[in-house]
Amino acid sequence: MSFLTVKNINKSFGSTEVLRGIDLAINKGEVVAIIGSSGSGKTTLLRCLNFLEIADIGEISVDGEVIFASDGTRAFSDRELREKRSRFGLVFQSFNLFPQYTAFENLTLAPKLKLEERVKKEHLAAAERKAELARITARAADLLEQVGLSEKRDFYPCQLSGGQQQRVAIARALMLSPDILCFDEPTSALDPELTGEVLRVIRSLKNSERTMIIVTHEMEFARNVADHVIFMADGVIEEEGTPDEVFGNPKSEKTKAFLAVDKG
Amino acid sequence: MALFFEVTLSLLKGFGTTCSIFGLTLVLALPLGLLISFGTMSKFRPVKAVFKTFVWIIRGVPLMLQLFVVFYVPGFLFGMPIASRFVSTIIAFVINYACYFSEIYRAGIEAIPTGQTEAGEVLGMTKWQIFRKVIFMQVVKRIIPPMGNEIITLVKDTALARVIAVTEIIWRAEQFTSRALIWPLFYTAVFYLAFVGALTLLFGWAEKKLAYYKV
Ligand SMILES: Nc1ncnc2c1ncn2[C@@H]1O[C@H](COP(=O)(O)OP(=O)(O)OP(=O)(O)O)[C@@H](O)[C@H]1O
Ligand SMILES: [Mg+2]
């Protein structure tokens, strides 16, 4: 039984069908790389998983629980979407750090707001609130350390390099311990010499508890780090398999053409 | 010298009224403008249309005319007792400036990349939390220069209240013309310049204060 199951996701923008029946089955702790040419729908798929876009049709289950099912007739409230989102995290191509907060504050903002909500709803005692706050702070410090940025905790995003910003963004996404962490071309906006540090961090996150889906153009990285590779073309999964299968012995003509161009 | 003191004292009183119009308008129009900007950005078409039309009318008609409307029309149409001149002025100014401010807010809010909202959303924040904690301060930083401009215009627009005989500084100065004194009128410029100068310094300071981050 897979940890994340996605069934028949369809998504159109107007009359453009961007996703046409995507199925995924991903195990816990697995790292999945999604590759494919521009416009094939990779970003849209990640956005549907994070409910930034709502799939027109399809079903998403996490850990055996159906968290999203749509036949295209029902609208979802902000509140529902927020609930569903809590299972997923997303690291953006353009980092999207909050510019007015330091690296450290970028990490703690959302958890603190969530804590304040709990304080209100559950009438947490002051001592407990304090303990929770300490936990948030400690976790933020840990995560900054993990991405190698302890010294930059009080720096603002504009004072950090692109690679450092992206590492902060990764730490921020980890703060709420999402079941599934998605990356949308995490190194595409970076100068070539900065991609290494970010890829190293992502690689270091691999463990048996953390499921990751990484959209990337870094074929080397996909080949070395992923357990499973998905090649998308025109809104469908054209081919998938282990890195060796997809990169070493592609079956589909489209995959072959894509990989050939990439070697270029 | 006695005359100079007399004029200064009278102008100072008028300037007090000027400052009251300015201060009250600012304090009320700043939040109201934000609400109106939400209306003009509403995803619900009819609401958006109503707010857009309202802003168009208010921005399309001279403030002076709006002063007359607020002051005379309620009594004229509905037989309501005329509100005080000062209250009418504040109502007209607040509505007018709120509409101008709303456009500044709207431009500021729309200029914030959607990625900021989306980053908040994937972190599980509510729409309101995102606005309050992420978007708002970025908007503030962006709109300080255009707001500064508009607020400086407001200082000088207060003189319009004179048309319904509110005793602001220009009105006071004009009273001296009946004594063949024209210089008090020019003397008022000193008050405006000092006020605008102080505001300019204040906005400069605020811009510097927020220079620690880039949006
Ligand atoms: N909000 C939108 N409205 C209309 N069309 C959209 C929207 N978002 C994406 N599309 C279209 O959907 C298609 C797939 O886009 P998507 O961003 O998912 O591709 P991608 O595989 O991530 O490409 P890239 O490698 O360039 O990032 C494109 O043709 C794009 O123009
Ligand atoms: Mg993309």
Q: Calculate Rg of chain B over CA atoms.
A: 21 Å
Name the strands of the widest sheet of chain A in spatial order.
6-7-8-3-9-10
Describe the biggest sheet of chain B? Answer: none
Largest interface: A-B, 29 and 23 residues
Q: What does this 3D model show about the protein?
A:
- The complex is a heterodimer of chains A (264) and B (215).
- Helices cover 41% and strands 25% of the residues of chain A.
- With 264 residues, chain A is an alpha/beta fold.
- Helix content of chain B is 80%, strand content 0%.
- By secondary structure, chain B is mostly helical.
- In chain B, α1 crosses α4, α1 packs antiparallel against α7 and α5 runs antiparallel to α6.
- Classes of the chains: A alpha/beta (264), B mainly alpha (215).
- The complex binds adenosine-5'-triphosphate and magnesium ion.
- Adenosine-5'-triphosphate (ATP) binds next to β2 and α1 of chain A.
Set down the secondary structure blueprint:
The complex is a heterodimer of chains A (264) and B (215).
Chain A: E1 4-13, E2 16-26, E3 31-36, H1 42-49, E4 57-62, E5 65-70, H2 78-85, E6 88-91, H3 103-122, H4 126-146, H5 162-174, E7 180-184, H6 192-204, E8 211-215, H7 219-225, E9 228-233, E10 236-241, H8 243-248, H9 253-263
Parallel strand pairs in A: 3-8, 3-9, 6-7, 7-8
Antiparallel strand pairs in A: 1-2, 1-4, 4-5, 9-10
Helix pairs in contact in A: 3-4, 3-5, 4-5, 5-6
Chain B: H1 2-40, H2 45-60, H3 63-78, H4 85-110, H5 114-122, H6 127-157, H7 169-175, H8 183-209
Helix pairs in contact in B: 1-2, 1-4, 1-7, 2-4, 3-4, 4-6, 5-6, 6-8, 7-8
The structure holds adenosine-5'-triphosphate (ATP) and magnesium ion.
Would you kindly provide a brief summary of this structure?
The complex is a heterodimer of chains A (264) and B (215). By secondary structure, chain A is an alpha/beta fold.
